[in-house]
Amino acid sequence: MKIKYLTKDPDWVQRLEKLGYGYHSDNNTPYWIDHYYYSISEALADKIYHATEELWQMCLKAVEYVIENQKYALFHIPNFIHHHIEKSWENDAPGIYGRFDFAYDAAKDQLKMLEFNADTPTSLFESGVVQWYWKEHFFGNKKDQFNSVHDQLIDSWKVLKPYLKGSKLHFSCVKESLEDLTNVEYLRDTAIQAGIETKLVYVDDIGWNGQHFVDLEDEAIGSIFKLYPWEWLVNEEFGIHIINDVSEAQWIEPSWKMILSNKAILPVLWELYPNHPLLLESHFNDPKGMSSYVKKPLLSREGANISFVYNDRTIFETQGDYGEEGFVYQELAALHKEGSGYSIIGSWIIGQEPCGISFRESDYPVTTDKSRFLPHIIE
Amino acid sequence: MKKRSSKAVQLLLITSVLASCSKPAPKTENEVKQQVFMRADSTAQYTNVTQQYDQQRSHSGGMGSALLWYMAFRHLGGGMGYASSGLKPQSVVGTNTAKANAYNKTATRGGFGSTAKKSNVSASS
């Protein structure tokens, strides 16, 4: 796994914007990296594939364990939604995707799971579309990429279609984020290609008519994909209506994903699979004797409120408003480092199948919304 | 095994709308701030939606189609014209009593989305 440089394409911005990729830069600082990439081996791609497959099965077992043993308090999940979670789990309610984040130690050829973005993962459009077109632009069909995200999304929607409620699948996100809108519109695009009738409704335009959730035309919502975290939904004014809904709308991702998207799953996994080679030691409440660890809030987003402790000394901290619900302590992982920065690997699981990877690079050993997206090639 | 590149990636939705959001607007030091006003009934007063415009512009640099997506006008049916929850109610119905009745009968909205607004962060992870 190493960085390789390309001759810069002076028209890279126009090339990307033609695809509908509008957030390639943040105040003139590129978020998308076009002129260098990660070159990885076939063996590493295989390794990531199998690690993702194995972790997914471990995560499903962990959800079962949390539900059977009523461990919701560890996750700070409100009481009123427990039954909804259990029902969604028992009914095998449809989900579409998730993204594992890995640290890779090249010296030990070792992958370690940093976390699982199981509820609202993004960078899907970059992974499935922009990265693929980048490969076509620079390499044509001479090189390969671990990236069947697009095909797998369409195939997965086809599988889910018979299980959806209502005649339409609604898609929802916040109004103020072009990144979120692009990811949702991409998902909607693939659902349309799978033959599903769809409709966009922004999350704050969702209505409640006393019986059902409705869209802006007062049409009842039977099934809805939402790019909006469960922990936000259940704590907002309409959250209680999720269980009052006469139609019992099908939410995608389903409510049981609330367990996997919470950092409390990390110590639960460690308890269930102690010393598993893909896991980092993790604990609730205190580091339990670890001298080098990362302290993460249960519900933080985009790398906020994280502290890095090395040999019992805090060496780096990020700011934010999270941490009220408590913290987990995770063994400090060695992140892959090149001259351009620290990198993590994102591995997509779509329709229960590992199907693509992406790389995020940062100046510091934590991934935030400022971290750069790097494409890759298998060679 | 899906560890291969897709053979082809085709998109159906209007990606040009999203792309248009990223075009930087030319700025000058003495630029006069653009004001945007809207109403949904000819008997109504206008609502200043410049703030929503600015929110879009911070991501995009231009109003383009994104603001129209944001405003999301919906048809009330029964010849009552259109409404948008992005406008003040008096700018939706004006003095049109029949339209006010139709508008008030619709579902309540805004019960989701408050956390994102309060924390001003993306819902993505």
Features:
heterodimer, A: 379 residues, alpha+beta, six-stranded antiparallel β-sheet, five-stranded antiparallel β-sheet, 22 strands, globular, B: 125 residues, mainly alpha, two-stranded antiparallel sheet, 6 helices, 5 strands, 34% helix, elongated
Written overview of the protein:
The complex is a heterodimer of chains A (379) and B (125). With 379 residues, chain A is α+β, with helices and mostly antiparallel strands. Chain A has two domains: 305 residues, no CATH class; 51 residues, no CATH class. In chain A, the strands form six sheets. In chain A, strands 5, 6, 18, 19, 20 and 21 form a six-stranded antiparallel sheet that branches. A five-stranded antiparallel sheet of chain A has the order 13-17-14-15-16. In chain A, helix 2 crosses helix 11 and helix 6 crosses helix 7. The longest helix of chain A has 27 residues. By secondary structure, chain B is mainly α. In chain B, 34% of the residues lie in helices and 8% in strands. Chain B is built from six helices and five strands. In chain B, strands 1-2 form a two-stranded antiparallel sheet. A two-stranded antiparallel sheet of chain B has the order 3-4. Chain B is elongated and about 60 Å long. The two termini of chain B are 26 Å apart.
